Amino acid sequence: MKQLSWARMGTLALAISAISGAYAAETKSVAVTAIVEHPALDAVRDGVKDALKAAGYEEGKSLKWQYQSAQGNTGTAAQIARKFVGDKPDAIVAIATPSAQAVIAATKTVPVVFSAVTDPVAAKLVASWEPSKNNVTGVSDLLALDKQMDLVKQVVPNAKRIGMVYNPGEANSAVVVKELQALLPKMGWTLVTAAAPRSVDVSSAARSLVGKVDVIYTNTDNNVVSAYESLVKVGQDAKIPLVASDTDSVKRGAVAAYGINYRDLGEQTGRMVVRILKGEKPGDIKPEVSTKMELFVNPGAAEKQGVKLSDTLIKSAAQVVK
Picking from 14-23, 75-84, 265-274, 304-313, which range would have the lowest pLDDT averaged per residue? Predict the structure, then answer.
């Protein structure tokens, strides 16, 4: 009997070992990096994690997950990229243009999925919107600027001078400025820009627009979004309304935004990562653009910034921020 028990124990040990080996084989690793932490980019990160969990990849079980923010520093972004590439994960998710550029510069083999990048072609992440045939794919937060300007007109009907604070060194922002410089004259408007190469420059850049603009439009520039409260203060003090392109900024004091739900964008990115974890090559997956748009309005912020939102605009919003 004793010998039989030992035999059974040996069989059981082999079975446990086999199960453990199968578990190890199924475990995948995903490394995520963002250029900075702010609500929109944090929502992308969380959306990626949600999509992975929904597909059965759960942290601590079948998924090894790691996340690092570059805290707005491109040098740190490059260091994180090299570290992650050395870890050889099954996929790297790079959130926002500077982090995506850093990761793609660091590897030609590890699968890279970019997210929250306005124009991946202009940023030289991919050669075109077709499958890259290399190790890169991703999801863009590209917005139709004509619809953004339609919202500006609804918020400030008599606006003629559109202000924009942006980081000239951020590719996605430079693209938006170039497109607005072509679009606004056709509408009888002019664009007035103010450079903010660092987050600490946002307040002074915004103040330089006082007396020169009727409204300030903010794109998803990471320096601006990470320091949005300083922009809001200028808007309130000078009675210049702020119209944003990301809905999270409305909760922080923008008057309105017709933009992407960044949690949804993260989930869309996560589903793309799942395809790669299941064997698809990133170079065979066409880059995508988020198509789900939402209108958020903040009547309280509008009042503080010297405008009143129409009942029609408020009633058409997906969310009215109190």
Answer: 14-23
Largest Cα span, the chain: 95
> Cα separation of 108 and 145, whole Å?
33
Q: Which residues pair with 319 in a beta bridge?
A: 296
* Closest alpha carbon to 269 in 84, 93, 107: 93
- 69: β partners: 34
| Residue 260: partners with Cβ closer than 8 Å, 6 or more residues away | 141, 143, 246, 247, 290, 292, 293, 294
Strand partners, 195: 166
Nearest to 65 by CA among 48, 80, 79: 48
| Strand ranges across the sheet with 256-260 | 190-195, 161-166, 215-218, 242-246, 256-260, 293-297, 319-320
Instruction: Report pLDDT digits (tens) over 93-129.
Output: 999 999 999 999 999 999 999 999 999 999 999 999 9
Element (H, E) at 47: helix 39-54
Could you tell me the pTM of the whole model? 0.81
Question: Tokens 């606004």 correspond to what residue?
Answer: 184
43-78 pLDDT, tens digit each:
999 999 999 999 999 999 999 999 999 999 999 999
Q: What's the alpha-carbon Rg for the chain, to the nearest Å?
A: 23
What would the two tokens of residue 288 be?
A: 């995508």
User: What percent of the chain lies above the pLDDT cut of 70?
Assistant: 92
Element of type H or E holding 304: helix 299-304
Residue 320: which H helix or E strand, with range? strand 319-320
Start-to-end CA span in the chain (Å): 74
As a whole number of angstroms, the distance between CA 105 and CA 94 comes to 12
Using alpha carbons, select from 120, 115, 63, 69 the residue that is nearest to residue 90: 63
Look at strands 161-166 and 112-117 and give their pairing.
unpaired
Structure tokens at 158: 């008599």
